[in-house]
Amino acid sequence: MLIPNQKVHLPLLEEKGITLCLKREDTIHPFISGNKYRKLKYNLLEAKRQEHTALLTFGGAFSNHIAATAFAGKEAGLKTIGIIRGEELKDSWTENPTLKLAKEHGMEFHFVSRSDYREKDTSTFYERLKSLFGDFYLLPEGGTNALAVKGCEEILTEADMEFDFVCSCVGTGGTVAGLINSAKPHQTILGFPALKGDFLKQDILKFARNENWEFIPDYHFGGYAKVDERLIDFINTFKKETQIPLDPIYTGKMLFGILDKVKQGFFKPGTSILAIHSGGLQGIKGMNLVLKKKKLPLLDI
Question: What residues are paired with 54 via a beta bridge?
Fold first, then answer.
């Protein structure tokens, strides 16, 4: 699979002597795009090998993983079950673009309270799910496990080895761990977390085999799914200037961070950077509903 690297042309980059390209993983598939395709690839094969007929996974209201799993499961002939965070969504999910999309592709929902959702990794919760749904192949929240990391190790190609830095968003850590494992010794992987907190480092260390990486933790904009007018303006301006759409949860924050680091002189002149566009564009419609309620500017679609 040949995924294009699109060069980003901006005056700031020319002024600083920096080359920035975006690997357009968002173009892999209309619904199973970016890192979600990579994470599901080997898990679907394993589910089939084990002769499971259903996939069960977890996610929030605008989860790219939930949308991708629903479509991938349908394509693979597997039933899909989504354990959705937020009991209040039980009566309003039809107003949610992500959940509507997942339902259209056959996903069965089970809504749980936020307190119950925090227990999702316990044996008690797992046994409860088994009693409710019978046999299933379990996919963790965000899709990250050893097979997901294996899929993400395939993102970089031989042609990508010319870059000095490879940048990735960080949610559950699977994508960046795959990049760490497949990068060459001369390359540095920069991870831009979408969540607050240092706990993600420990999650990455479960799967990463090399030490060629660094966390850039300053661009989460207040935490997961938090956005402000500055970020919205950046995403809309970036799209206008480059014709490349970004999502507000992951890639928008990463690109904001990369260009801010360029401004600060973090990268030496002559540096070449490859940023991974991990998709997530399906979530923009849902985010715009949230922004409208908050009377904030909308993201261009």
Answer: 79
Which one-letter amino acid corresponds to residue 194? Answer: A
* Residue range 130-182, pLDDT digits in tens: 999 999 999 999 999 999 999 999 999 999 999 999 999 999 999 999 999 99
Q: Could you tell me which of 192, 243, 250 has the C-alpha nearest to residue 10?
A: 243
At 72, which helix (H) or strand (E)? helix 64-76
Cα three-residue angle 38-26-259, rounded to 5 degrees: 110
Closest CA relative to residue 18, chosen from 260, 198, 183, 226: 260
Q: Which of 138, 171, 96, 172 is nearest to 111 (CA)?
A: 96
**Model confidence pLDDT, tens digit, residues 50-109:** 999 999 999 998 899 999 999 999 999 999 999 999 999 999 899 999 999 999 999 999
| % of residues, the chain, pLDDT over 70 | 100
CA angle, 62 as apex, 58 and 68 as ends, to 5°? 65
Q: Is there a contact between 299 and 288 (Cβ–Cβ < 8 Å)?
A: yes
Task: Tally Cβ neighbours within 10 Å of residue 66.
Answer: 26
**Per-residue pLDDT for 2 more than 90?**
no
CB 198 within 8 A of CB 173: no
Amino acid, single-letter form, for residue 7? K
Inter-residue contact 163 to 187 (CB < 8 Å): yes
Contact predicate 70/105, CB 8 Å: yes
Backbone angles phi, psi at 8, to 5 degrees: -95, 125
Helix (H, G, I), strand (E, B) or coil at 249: coil
Alpha-carbon span 170 to 201, nearest angstrom: 10
